[in-house]
């Protein structure tokens, strides 16, 4: 199917047949926000490889999907994926095809000064327009982010978190996004907003998964997230993307970190037919810091694109970025990372690294690390490597009686585990390492991730 020309009149019907926004609140400022996004997307359309930032990722599979009307019925859920240790007290919010499912969620009492829940519910109650100061403002409207514009035009629900100054959550909040296609391919556009005021602390754990065995199989999850980390606040944000292998998963994250604040992010990717995760972080005041780390494991014809940008806007800011991948069969990985040190950002410290293991001759990796430095007193570095498994290390293990397949798995786990073990939320490490083990077991069984 050729792509329908994008116009303000048909954009809603093309990506969510059946008026999926019919129940969205009619707030004047929100309508203006959506209308602007519709116009920008109508002018730009879906991005193509002719755009430099999309050079390595083609959305042709998305163009070919005929989306079914949004599934109003309750989809049956047999199990909920989780990354948290059993018995750990947590707040759990579950979204199915982008809509909040209260019956599957566990919303216990929250401390004073914490607001967590459904964005749709918050918008319905936002009579004073308090959300107008943050929603859509952190990401901005520069006209060069068509998939973010599509999300803004279509958003109706998602995760909301707001911590007042000095509040520190003792337990993680778990957010589970499930995709299903009960009546053919679905398209949904969840929007998240997280605001941490001065000296607050939170851990947010996201799990993106599919509900297998559904008619149609394919779905399109187009996520967007806006984050503001206040002065001396800390947000640790961990995500596992394990969508169905017929799915398309796109995400667009914008974070602003103020003086002394920390945004610590980690993403594990092993699902979806095609995925692209864009992250843009602005270090806006002295002492602001961010960590953008991730691992990805792909096989078959999976495609994963990690595109990041970190702007050092103020002096004495710091960033650390490490992405590691394992590619097998005909899988393709993409890493585009840009660190920009602005003129006034003296004494900034930025480090960026991309490392990939290629397990077959037909796997492909495209890496494009970039530094733009406009200050003269900085400490910055970047690097990228891609290659086969170390033959000497493999020989060393084989010489000690370890079967070749076991030895290869041990080396892959060691390659990825140091990134996982560096997480501050240590309780998540066993579950993440288990996810690596499951992916390796699937390879041994001849299955897909």
Give a description of the structure.
The chain has 449 residues and is α/β, with parallel strands linked by helices. It has two domains: 11-285, no CATH class; 390-449, no CATH class. The chain has eight helices and 20 strands. It has helices at 11-15, 28-44, 60-63, 119-124, 146-154, 391-398, 404-421, 429-445; strands at residues 91-96, 99-100, 114-118, 159-163, 173-179, 186-188, 191-196, 201-210, 219-229, 234-242, 248-257, 262-269, 274-283, 289-298, 303-312, 318-327, 332-341, 349-358, 364-373, 379-387. It is globular. Residues 1-6 have low confidence and may be disordered.
Class by SSE composition: alpha/beta
Task: Estimate percent helicity.
Answer: 10-25%
Radius of gyration: 21 Å
Low-confidence stretches: 1-6
- Please list the strands of the largest sheet in the order they lie side by side: 2-1-5-8-10-12-14-16-18-20
SS field, number of helical segments: 8
Number of distinct beta strands: 20
The coarse silhouette is globular
Output the helix-strand order. Answer: HHHEEEHHEEEEEEEEEEEEEEEEEHHH
Number of domains: 2
Percentage of residues in strands: 35-45%
Sheet with the most strands, sense and barrel status: 10 strands, mixed
The rounded distance between the terminal residues' Cα atoms is 28 Å
Mean pLDDT: 89
